[in-house]
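Sample A.
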Amino acid sequence: MSEQLIIFDTTLRDGEQSPGASMTKDEKLRIARQLERLKVDVIEAGFAASSNGDFEAVRAIAAAVRESTICSLARANDRDIARAAEALKGAARSRIHTFIATSELHMEKKLRRTREQVLEQAIQAVRFARNLCGDIEFSPEDGYRSDPEFLARVVEAVIAEGATTINIPDTVGYAIPELYGNFIKNLRERVPNSDKAIWSVHCHNDLGMAVANSLAGVQIGGARQVECTINGLGERAGNCSLEEVVMAVKTRRDYFGLDVNIDATQIVSASRLVSQTTGFVVQPNKAVVGANAFAHASGIHQDGVLKARDTYEIMRAEDVGWAANKIVLGKLSGRNAFKQRLQELGIALESEAEVNNAFVRFKDLADRKN
């Protein structure tokens, strides 16, 4: 029996941190319902303490969504955690996600706290949260750039206090896949009680490797939760893309040996809803959800796909919610694709010579148009 990979969607929290992507309560609720149809395991609905509007959005989602665990982010202080717990009261399943920075850079320049002060604050936060909610996630912000020995002390302590998920963020997208995977692996080996919690990865895309780093954290590091967003939405260069992680695990199950709960046929609908709501256009060549992800313009590719789809497609367009793949006719198209389009349009030419003549004229026109 294969293991389960938990999909934690943070489109409504970390995704909303993308400049210009702010969402209203009603917009968040619509997206949350689509995420529920997508069968996302955990929905991070927002940061309840950040504003009254976000508090109300988290509360509305907690009341409306019954199939997914609803999560709220909270800094490692009693006020934030109590606010998150209050917003989550109506949830069928709730999680509080608390965090504090652990890298030397962040502790010195941002928090202006010593290692011991940060350690104590993390312990107190998880202890307080555990009394309000049974499902507690802890994140050491900028974890990947933290001293491994100190990070291990923090993680061991918060697990002892009742943290059920340990998330190791690559907050600034600095990681390299192999190094990040081994970082998670070595950290788990350093922490004596590591088996008492689920390990999670949260990677940013500043160097374009968020998905690769996340999958390395899973395959090499042994993480069993991936934090991601629809369309890779997020601050700066974005977050790990949900659709890419899910389809990588599904398509290469031979390698990962993991299952996901996700209903992949809902992926395109989720992508479109998030794009329409935020105004962030999905680039045409975006994997899985881009307009060209299943489109073929080259005659060689078109001929192959028409003869056997898997010559040039490792996934079926229908499996992620597209109606079908696309054969795009243009100057690069081949005769086979042109002939099939004639048949689809109900245009019957009497002989192969007429087809050939029409194809020559089509190519001439395509050369001028393109």
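Sample B, a different protein:
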Amino acid sequence: MASGFGDMQSLLKQAQDMQRRMQETTRALSERVLEGSSGGGAVKAYVNGNQELQSVKIDKAAVDPDDVETLEDLVTTAVRQALVAAKELRDAETSKVTGGMNLPGLGF
């Protein structure tokens, strides 16, 4: 019976360690900035590794008051591209901690 309790303690310790490492990973990801661009670089979007939009930069040449729809499309494309890059980075970094397992309840 005692060995079963020891196994449970070991499992709990491993889970706590994994949770700590995930929190460290989340913090580190918040400091990484990824870029998405469109229109040949006329529009750039920057997101952090936690998929949070940080900023959008628009070249003045991309601004045409008579064609707002194109600018909207360029911004949308740049943001989506940056978010995809951030998701891929987050997935790769998270996988390093979890060993590729999908662990519900850890909030990641």
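Observation for Sample B: The mean pLDDT is 89.
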